[in-house]
Write a structure and sequence with these properties.
The protein has 175 residues and is an all-alpha fold. It is built from 5 helices and no strands. It is 78% helix and 0% strand.
Length: 175
Amino acid sequence: MNLTTLPKSVLRLQYKIARFPLGFIEQQLRFLPADAPPRLMYERGLGMLDGIVGSVLDDPAIATRGALITEQADAVRRAEKIGAQATAEREARHAEEEKTPPAKVAPERIAPAKAAPSKVEPKKPAPQKSEQTEEPEKISLKDAVAKQLEAKEAEERAHDAGDVAEFEKIEHKHP
């Protein structure tokens, strides 16, 4: 038996006791939306705490749980930021399109219209979107969707890691 085994076991037990109310608060925060700032801040803090304690106590289960929680909170925050950026770009593009005057009609089209007046007015060409303006929106939306999927996968991995940890606990108690 190593000299640090007993103190680490005691600290691990104390952390489990201290972590219980924190886990209860975390469960209550699950009722908030996934991108709510208080929930993200709490989950990130709790994940960092788990990561630090897991590395100090040499407990890979706690360290992994902390890394997964932190990764999930960061992924949700990045997805939210990218989604807000895409929305702002889209709104700016729409505002810019509204400000620009309609495309000018070519003089060749005006001359025949004057020569032969008709009841039907010539159509004005619709302002065409350039491919360059559409591409950033597609990329931003793809990034936002990818980040949201990444956050969901991180949440599932964290949940699965918790299930695996519970299974290992049960298996360890009853070999």
